[in-house]
Backbone:
């Protein structure tokens, strides 16, 4: 029963500490060596901007549709026959 209380207390301390840091111009920031540290609000905003830019870059790199040469020969024959059936059923 003591462990859940400790976790809850630690969580509240973290949140309250964040409010106190924010009121004096600091914030929790990701430490380059891993973990969390205390840094300025400008540093936090810079980190958020970098993350936003990375997301934009990865969203723009969508994979192209599967090209026919990438399909193995057995599947290629099945795909071709399926396409022909679809074309024939559409024209009938």
Residues:
């Amino acid at each position: 029963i003591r462990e859940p209380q400790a976790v809850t207390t630690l969580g509240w301390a973290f949140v309250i500490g964040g409010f106190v840091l924010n009121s004096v111009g600091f914030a929790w920031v990701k430490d380059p060596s891993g973990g969390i540290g205390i840094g300025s609000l400008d540093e936090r905003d810079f980190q958020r901007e970098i993350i936003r830019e990375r997301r934009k870059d990865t969203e723009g790199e969508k994979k192209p549709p599967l090209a026919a040469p990438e399909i193995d020969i057995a599947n290629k024959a099945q795909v071709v026959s399926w396409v022909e059936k679809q074309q024939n059923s559409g024209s009938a």
Observations:
- The chain has a mean pLDDT of 80.
